[in-house]
Amino acid sequence: MSKKIIIALLMVCLTAINLSAQVKKKQPVKKKAPTNTSTVQVKKVEYKTYKNDPYHLLEYKLSNGLTVLMSVNKAEPRIQTFIATKAGSKNDPSNHTGLAHYLEHMLFKGTDKFGTQDWAKEKPYIDQIYSLYDEYNLTKDDKKRADIYRKIDSVSGIAANYAIANEYDKLMQSIGATGTNAFTSVEQTVYVNNIPSNQLKNWVSIEAERFRMPVFRIFHTELEAVYEEKNRGLDNDDVKAYEAMMELLFKKHPYGTQTTIGTIEHLKNPSLTAIRNYYNTYYVPNNMAIILSGDFNPDEAIAAIEKQFGNWKPGVVPEFKYEAENKNPTPEIKEVVGPKAAYVILGYRLNGATTDDALKLKLMSNLLYNGSAGLVDLNLIKSQKLLTAYAGPEYFKDYSILMFYGFPSEGQKAEEARKLLEEQLEKVKKGEFDESLLAAIVNNLEVSNIQTQEDNGQRVYSIMNAFITGQDWQSYVNEISDLKKITKTELVKWANEKFTNDYAVIYKRTGTDNTTVKVEKPIITPISINREVVSPFADNIIKSKVTPIKAEFLDYSKDLSFSKLKTKPVDLIYKKNVENNRFTVYYTFEIGKDHEKRLSLALSYLDVLGTDKYTPDQLNREFYNLACTYQILPGNTRTIVVIKGLQANFEKSILLVEHVLGHIVGNNEALKGLIANEMQNRENVKKNNSFIIRTSLPTYAKYGPENPLTNVVKSKDLDKITSDELVFLIKQLPTFKHKITYYGPAELTQVSADFDRLHQCPVNLNDAGLPKFKQLTAQSNDVLFVNYDMVQVSVQWLSYSGPFNQDILKTSTYFNDYFGSGMGSIVFQTLREAKALAYSTYSYFQAPVRADENFYTLALIGTQSDKMHEAVDGMNELLKELPKSDVLFENAKRGLKSQYEANRVIREGVIDNYLSSLMLGVDHDLRKDIYNNLDAMTFEDLRVFHHKYFSDKKYNLLVVGNKDKLDMNYLSTLGTVKYINIDDLYGY
Fold it and tell me: Do 656 and 615 touch, CB atoms closer than 8 A?
């Protein structure tokens, strides 16, 4: 797992999906923006540019201070958009924590022009709600608060009659946007969309209106969604541990004194007035940026933005001031308790993202951990001194952080893990590392940057980070050259100055947290969501004419080249990289964990072994010095070796992988460590509620007690495994049927000749046979219940819906978009928007990934334990009867058509698409079938589909929650309750 992914998972302030709120007692201040009727002539614009910039960033600032940052990338006719505000939880008033995050939700609720049927009639009720919340916020008496809340609920119900729920989402759906979302962090709030390139002007119009005068309508149901988000955090040990670390590191700065989601007390006492004041203060053009990366004309983009945002009035943004943190003479320690596996976190506080500390931190964090040849990688993970560990940075404007994570091995304590992590830091401070590793780090960062530049999403994220932290883009561009200048002597000196005893330690213990207090559910009367109403503003956008984009689909015979190695019985699939000098190779072996239960163990063993030529450390350094990464991914029915690197090192990289597969050498001590770690890993997995909900319980329901997850070597038999048998399994991989795919800059003839020469396999390949496990087809109304100590409860519906048939996809894709797979869908609007029953909920028709697997009907709702009855009943109603909405039906069709027309499968994706089709027994791009069928689709088609696959079905209910907090008698009315022991999910 990469550092970026790890840190992203631990951040408290993740995305918050389409949401909104209400307006205050006073008439909101309108921020002027140009009207849609004004015209602006497209003219040549002068931009600020940067030397040697691979992003070719164009920077422009409107006269009102709004920053526009653009990076043109013509690879596909889409544009990734961010609208970023330099305002996050550090700017929250101390008496209204969570406010920035609340506001993020509210900016999906519309304005006086969209999201409303009649603003003049709606406004008085919105004003009344403002007043009631102000009163509620100041009232302490519980009885009086309950009375006020009843009034809020009543008035909100009346106001909702004039609202059009989720109209922003519907607008985005109508223009073919994907990934519509937002996220709040400590110093930014960012609004996200990915749009077809021909919809840029419509997108600008919608966003300008969105920020002109947001109306915080449908507030109390959205507030309940935030409550649910808080409760999800209370169920997440990683979130709690991260927050505890921030509290220790930052006793004066809001990074640690308040959290992005806010306190329970503040969540219970929101102030719409405070939210409106926050918006008026920080959501001003001179504090914001529009960031675009994709296929567009910059001059046309600026003309559209000037037209729509140019009259937006700037404001005076308060200077953020903070008191410097005290330096502590000794480490500070705190414990966090929860059901998940134990681990330790170490956190070191450094200067902010624009300082010299941040540059050196990038080099040092990779020296410590880079997933291959860092000190933590080699000394702790590969040597099996810890189950796993990693180190990674966080870059904020005011401070940066270096964080270590250590997961103890079997029988090990978190204190021991801490000591081992500290030893790696001491090695850096003593200079006990090879200086050549610094050059290898920079080379690998260069390769990583190449991949980042290919992806519009990563481009805008990098640009956004620079804008938010105040980093000059030229310094970002120069980062690699600046890193090359840092010497070992300089880095060691810096490390000794910065990494003293002034750090924090969090021990995450396994146990019951008796201090957890959930946000209790309020009484909410379901509101009207007015699906069939469209505002004039939205109607104008929907009916606007745009230059069409012609849909393009893959023709495998043209988009790929196919060859056979001359001397090996192996097919070669080829796609040329015409953009840069990197390559990606897959070896896809037709053998998986279903065929051989020891395979996962063998591949984990491979990760800690050397060869007859290299020690384990030398081997990892060889790969890292080549800037080559390789992974072996064991699936149920196939195993894929993924090799990535620079074409200049292609031959050396392939030879090294071939050497590993053919010349690996066993080590009995390493095997002992492997077994010990496997035992600990198994215990840790059983404590992971997210894995239980998303993977293990659904697998149990689909296959029964004997299934791919339970097809493992029993724990009691692990010590009988020998080194020789695992090494034999590794060396046998190339003897099974397989194919090779290549994406890179070399010509096919050269690639074919290279693999003929470099790839080692016998002339006759083995056939592993058919998959061992078959999915169940019998249906029942059983309730499969797993008891887990958590605040929320997760309920899933699962039903067998027949074998794979590619024709079904023509309808199911459209149905999913309409019914339950997005934020504008029937399920989301009803259960979250109207009834406030969940933060996360969906329902869709799930297609298999292999032709021998089945379709399934799925639904999920995660809710508070005391709302389970209402949530289950609400979902059951939708599964029983499909609500009809002509507006949503046409919107879904329009949006899907636009998505498919602007969608391009490119680079390695062409190979991935082809391999996925092969697994389904399909010989063409299935997207074409779906697209060609859209125009002919009617609501009757969806109704028939729903009746066949959703109504009157027998569902297994998969429930994970705390039985002491749930109404188990109610669950028994839904079917036969079968208590599933966590051990039975894994077969250990």
Answer: no
